[in-house]
Amino acid sequence: MAKPIEIQSAEQFGELLKNSRIVVADFYANWCGPCKQIAPIYEQLSRSLSRPKIATFVKVNTEAEGAKAVATEYAVTHLPTFIVFRDGSVVEKVKGANPKQLQSIVEKLSNDIENAAQGGASSSGSSGGLAWRGADLPRGYADISDSIDVRGLELLNADETHFSVRTLFNKAKPSALSKDKDTASSGEKDWIESDTDEQLLLYTPFNSAIKLHTIQITSLPPSDEDDDDVPMRPKTLKLFTNRPHNLGFDDADDIEPTQAIEIGEDDWNSNGTANLGLRFVRFQNITSLVIFVADGDGDGEKVRLDRIRLIGESGEKREMGKLEKIGDELGE
Predict the structure, then answer these.
(1) What is the pLDDT of residues 246-276, one digit of tens each?
(2) Structural contact between residues 282 and 241, judged by C-beta atoms closer than 8 angstroms
(3) Is 327 a catalytic residue?
(4) Which of 44, 75, 126, 302 would suit a FRET pair with 222, their CA atoms being 20 to 30 Å apart?
(5) 35 labelled catalytic
(6) Among 23, 35, 67, 121, the one annotated catalytic
């Protein structure tokens, strides 16, 4: 219902991030041909979806005095780049004038905007809303968990009594963090536990090649230390990339991982989330990821996982030059 706001300074942009729950930013330059081609589409989206203090669309001229700092802060190196912010944090990032990818993000946004307009996003975790996260995003990177090909997910050694591998990527806040503990405990279990021992093997394929920067793992076991059945948090993770299928446990023990991570007690924040930075150079063209939980932190027999979030950059799905039919693709 409003045209995009032209950003004049980093201070102005910061105020918008504070005062609007969702901010969509178009980083562009006047000399950029693809930026000009997609600009009418972006303006139409702004007019359709903007809502006061709920959803704000802005344009950031990367060569304008005062706005350059914003582009630098969010590591914008390609034009155009579209970044979606939720409550001040980056949740999506699209490089290039990619109308289909932008349209896909907007479709998810539209549901979230309507929920926010009606008094807050749904807590059901249904698709369409933006995901809960247990830790802040690294500057310049987005939650790319939606890049997972959920049809190919496989989890080995999970307790069959409450087992759905998709639970780990549920967008909702974990029930263990609910203020109403009775309600949380009486509902469907929304976490994963290992079965015969503390080890788990998760195979995660992606819809396109990604760059993986950080893994956020949430583990919220109950605090009853007198109960021998209380599961542990994971301690040692081994990550394997670009495997055509899941590994076996013997292979995961023997094969050299792309990276091994030891999670210490101090790595867990108040949300029960460990923010695990990766050796980024090793995770640049990733089509699949195997996460091997080798052991748990304690003397228990099981490990518990509540949520996993994958942070990085989605793969490019279209060359910037292929924009001749931009209007047709979005129904213009």
Answers:
(1) 999 999 999 999 999 999 999 999 999 999 9
(2) yes
(3) no
(4) 126
(5) yes
(6) 35
